[in-house]
Design a protein that fits this description.
alpha+beta; 8-stranded antiparallel barrel; 60s Ribosomal Protein L30, Chain: A; Porin; 4-stranded mixed beta sheet; 2 domains; 5 helices
Length: 380
């Protein structure tokens, strides 16, 4: 790619970045900009294009006007044929100053123009020729993109002009700029307009929700909803679902096992969300022992569950504990597994509303397994 095409594409890319944002370029701020890029030599100089490294230091007199000093170094190669030496290394040192004018300094992306003068020194040690020192003029521009109040990304283009003989070089660089000190903009708090008070307007009527279901009376199509039930946007009850799972007990015992407590915690949580529902707690035993003893043991199991539910915040008036003894087995009492199934407490919802769907499920596997372990022996 030739020199003019390279510079043209770079200039187009810089102009394509121009967008606006917050103020950044500050008056009375010192600036420091290290940079890298590329330097394109005029064909008359017999020097190859090469990377350039440099540093700029400057001062902003106002938000728009500033000045910079710069120094740079290019390590290139000379293609001048002098005896056996071809493509020997050449050191190019350049220094000078620019005056900058910033457009839209109150934006996050700040374009600028630059014009300045300087000198360069070309040293080709291997050719044993004297150093070349020339005065140069340059012009160009660039962009500063502020990513913070004191820090900006920067891109520059310069057309460097030499005289006697006439040459035209190009330099494109990328760097970072730090702003130190300066006059920081004053940020005023936003002005909140005072609300307009209508002297003749009547206040809006209060919003009333008589049944406390979250839907005001003006929109409630189902008034007097019982507390605790979920409703739709019109205030009508959505179908509720409750799962009532049984729990098991060890042989001849009425203490709750750890898996049984986990199940009861879930039932207590469901009842807390439905404060109008009432529950029957039914205790059962296997066929081991006398009918009279098993009746008392089943009642103790039902009472034990009711006491635990009260400890979890369920009102005791909502629960009835009733023992059924060994009268309602769900498995055969001829095996240890069947007897463990029969040593249980089951639940029944009383006065179930039509919008409540109940699932009665057998005890969990963990509850059944815990019930097969030996428990404390009770006196008959």
């Amino acid at each position: 790619m030739n020199k003019k095409m390279t510079v043209g594409l770079l200039g187009a890319s810089l102009l394509g970045l121009a967008t606006g944002a917050a103020a950044q370029n500050r008056a009375e701020a010192w600036t420091l900009t290290p940079y890298v890029g590329g330097y394109l030599f005029d064909s008359k100089q017999d020097l190859e294009s090469a990377p350039v490294f440099g540093l700029r230091g400057g001062y902003n007199f106002t938000e728009n006007w500033g000045a910079e000093l710069f120094g740079s170094y290019v390590l290139t190669e000379s293609d001048t044929d002098s005896g056996p030496n071809v493509n020997v290394e050449s050191n190019v040192y350049r220094f000078g100053g620019n005056v900058l004018y910033h457009f839209q300094p109150t934006k996050k992306l700040v374009p600028f123009l630059a014009v300045g003068v300087g000198r360069y020194n070309i040293d080709i040690p291997d050719l044993n020729r004297p150093k070349t020192n020339k005065t140069l003029a340059e012009y160009g521009g660039g962009l500063k993109y502020f990513v913070g109040p004191d820090f900006a990304l920067r891109a520059d283009i310069r057309h460097v002009l030499g005289f006697s003989p006439s040459i035209g070089n190009f330099e494109y660089t990328f760097g970072v700029t730090w702003e130190i000190g300066g006059v920081k903009p004053i940020v005023l708090p936003p002005v909140t307009p005072e609300p307009t008070i209508c002297q003749t307007c009547a206040p809006p009527p209060p919003r009333v929700d008589s049944d406390g279901d979250g839907v005001e009376d003006a929109l409630d199509k189902c008034p007097n909803t019982p507390k605790g039930f979920r409703v739709d946007s019109t205030g009508c009850i959505i179908e509720q679902t409750i799962v009532l799972r049984a729990v098991n007990f060890v042989l001849d015992g009425y203490e709750l096992t750890a898996p049984a407590k986990t199940t009861l915690d879930e039932i207590a949580s469901a009842l807390s969300a439905q404060p109008t529902l009432s529950l029957q707690i039914g205790g059962h035993t296997d066929s081991t022992g006398s009918d009279q003893y098993n009746q008392k043991l089943s009642q103790r199991r039902a009472d034990s569950v009711r006491t635990y539910m009260i400890s979890k915040g369920i009102d005791g008036t909502r629960m009835i504990a009733k023992g059924y003894g060994e009268s309602s087995p769900i498995s055969s009492n001829e095996s240890p597994e069947g007897r463990a199934d029969n040593r249980r407490v089951e639940f029944k919802l009383l006065d179930k509303p039509s919008f409540v769907k109940v699932y009665n499920e057998e005890s969990s596997r963990a509850s059944k397994t815990a019930a097969k372990k030996p428990g404390k022996t009770k006196k008959k």
